[in-house]
Input
Amino acid sequence: MTSAALKPGLFRPNLVRQAQAWLLLLPALIFLLAFTHLPTVSTVWNSFFSTSAGTPVDFSTENYQFLLEDEVFCQVLDNSFWYAVVTVPASMALALAMALWVNSKLSGKAALRLAYFTPTILPMISVANIWLFFYSPEIGLFNQILEWFGSDGYNWLGDPDLSLPSLMVMTIWKEAGFFMIFYLAALQAISPELYQAAEIEGASRFRMLRRITLPLLMPTTLFVLVNAILNAFKLVDHLFILTKGGPNNASNLLLYYIYENAFSFFDTAYAAALTVVLLMILVVLALLQFGVLERRVHYR
Output
């Protein structure tokens, strides 16, 4: 190393650039610390307290002990599991099918894309009210259609066996159009020369889908999967309008159960313990997604 390289003046531009970079990052870091890390630490801390009249007292682990004995929590966890297992793959598969369709040589593609994407731009409360009309026992659209076939219809949201599946159908309808946009953008980024070369080799459409389209869509699939799982565990708006977790907690989901304990029962410490459980579930799912699925992702 030469003596010129050791002169202090040569380090100043580098230090200035580093200081500028940190100053540019500072607003984002402040928001990240204030609205992500500090609330997470505070939630974990509050989960180890019992609650008396809305005030945390008595440091203990009784909230986590009560989790194991809480039958409602077990039911809510089971509901959330099946809700995610059904809605995530179904909405992703439907989104991919719609993207493949509107990306093909089809007349009226613009109107079809708009029709698919319309449910996404609707407010969640509006969507819930629309589907509340569909599911209404006497005047609902679904039961009126069933009357044409001689059926008395169903109490879609009042039947414990139908309330959660009814929520799943509404979620798939709303989520598929949103995920379709990402798949459509990824499909349009694939070079047509790949398909032309495959056609010359005599590959069928199914083989091109399996060997070209799906592997090149894996980065988008991973992105969509992360968002779909997050959406599956953060549903709360629709439950306010449709079922409020009923009947008898048959459609209650984890985030809504957290809301109930925090703002209806004012048991903030137990709600914090439930939130920690939700965070741990999301962490485990994130590790599985990025630790296992990312190995199959082919970045271009």
The mean pLDDT is 85. The first strand starts at residue 49 and ends at 52.
